[in-house]
What does this fold into?
Amino acid sequence: GSPQRTLEVSVVLPESGLTRTYLGERVEDTFPLLWAEGDKVSLNGVASSPVSASDAGKRACPFIFRGSVKAPFNILYPATEHSDKVVFPMVQNYTADSFDPAAFPMYASCNEYTDATMRHLGTLLGFQFTATDGIESSLKQLIVMSIDGNTLSGTFNLEKDENGGFTGDFAGAEGATTATLDFPEGGLALSEVPVTAWISVPAGEYPKG
It folds into this structure.
C-alpha cells in the first residue's frame, strides 16, 4: 500500500504566565513555559509523537502526526482522542515546584500547520504552607470548592467559531464543583520553609470564589 502521510507542526508555548508542562526557574514575576520529554499533543483527535529528550526544555517543539488531517487544525494538550473536549481531573497529583501536567489543558487553532501557539484553558491556584513552630504537621489533601456552583473538574466541551476553530471558551461541562489535590502517601511534611502547592481549575469568572 501507499506510505502513511505524516504532518509536522511546530507547537509553541505562551511567553508568560503559568501555562506549561513543568515550571522552570522563576524569572522576575513569571516562569518559563517549557515542554517536557514525553509530552504529546493531539491534532483533531490524532495523537502526536512524544517530545524527545533533545527537545525537552524548549518553548517550541516539532510534533509529528501520522494520518490525514484537514484544516482547521485544532490542537489540544494533553493529547486526547476527542477533537473538541478536555478533562480537568477530579483528583490531581502534587508535583514539587510545579503542577500536575495532566490537569492543565491548553489549546491552539490555526488554518496553517507550519506553527501554532498554545493558549490557556485553565488557571493555576497557588497555596503556600508552612509548619507552625514546634508543631509537626503534614499535608494529605487539598480541596477547592466553587461557592458559585461552577464546575471545577470533569469533561468540558470546547466552543468553536464559524470556521470550526476553537474560541477559547467552554460550551458546557459535566463534572463536580470541587477539585482535589492529592499529596504523596503519608502526606507532605511541612517545615519553616514555605511549600507552594499548585492546583488547576478551568479559566473563567468566579465572583463569589
About this structure: The CA atoms of residues 36 and 56 lie 5 Å apart. The chain has a mean pLDDT of 85. The chain has no helices and 20 strands.
